[in-house]
């Protein structure tokens, strides 16, 4: 884990003030989207955030939001993985439990306001020089713990630190 902490810390140290500001508000903005979804569906924030997360695999954020809104309005969502629609439908009754993947589950929790939820996606792997699409369960925990350690060092929440690393590595918040 020490190496992951060092790498993530080095990335965080390169962040500009603007990137820190983006990271601090990214999940707050995502929560606003989830609240809109929840309102459209007449459900809790947990369910709204879970629906948003269900449409996240292999999608850019703007398309993710568009798909979740379309779904919440009762319209057919086209051009997405069938499993994403199944997860969104399951979210209506199961909430977080509809999401079996560590990344999607943590993403829903972070969107819904859990400041300790850490999302490890392909960009968080790339930050470490790992060219895989997803980590093993053990790797996920070690990476999430590393993000949490760096967040503590910088006085940030783990979800904001994850967003910051993501923004620095990927190059923008959207």
As an assembly, this protein is single chain
- How many helical stretches? 9
The tally of strands reads 0
What profile does the largest beta sheet have? none
Structural class: mainly alpha
Question: Could you give the order of the helices and strands?
Answer: HHHHHHHHH
The stretches of 5 or more residues where confidence is low (pLDDT under 50) are none
Strand content: under 5%
Gyration radius, rounded? 16 Å
Relevant terms:
mainly alpha
Compact overview of the structure:
With 174 residues, the protein is mainly α.
If you had to describe this structure to a student in words, what would you say it looks like?
- The chain is an all-alpha fold and 174 residues long.
- The protein is 68% helix and 0% strand.
- The protein has helices at residues 2-13, 17-41, 45-54, 61-72, 82-94, 102-111, 122-127, 137-154, 158-170.
- It starts with a helix and ends with a helix.
- The mean pLDDT is 93.
């Amino acid at each position: 884990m020490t190496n992951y902490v060092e790498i993530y810390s080095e990335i965080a140290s390169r962040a500009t003030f603007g990137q820190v500001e983006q990271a601090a508000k990214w999940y707050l903005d995502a929560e606003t989207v989830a609240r809109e979804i929840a309102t459209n569906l007449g459900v809790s924030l947990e369910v709204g955030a879970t629906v948003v997360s269900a449409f996240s695999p292999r999608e850019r954020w703007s398309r993710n939001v568009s798909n979740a809104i379309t779904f919440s309005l009762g319209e057919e969502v086209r051009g997405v993985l069938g499993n994403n629609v199944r997860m969104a439908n399951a979210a209506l009754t199961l909430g977080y439990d509809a999401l079996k993947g560590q990344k999607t589950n943590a993403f829903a929790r972070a969107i819904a306001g859990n400041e300790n939820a850490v999302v490890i996606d392909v960009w968080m792997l790339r930050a470490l020089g790992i060219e895989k699409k997803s980590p093993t369960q053990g790797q996920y925990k070690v990476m999430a713990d590393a993000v949490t350690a760096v967040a503590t060092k910088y006085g940030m929440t783990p979800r904001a630190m994850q967003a910051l690393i993501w923004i620095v590595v990927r190059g923008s918040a959207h």
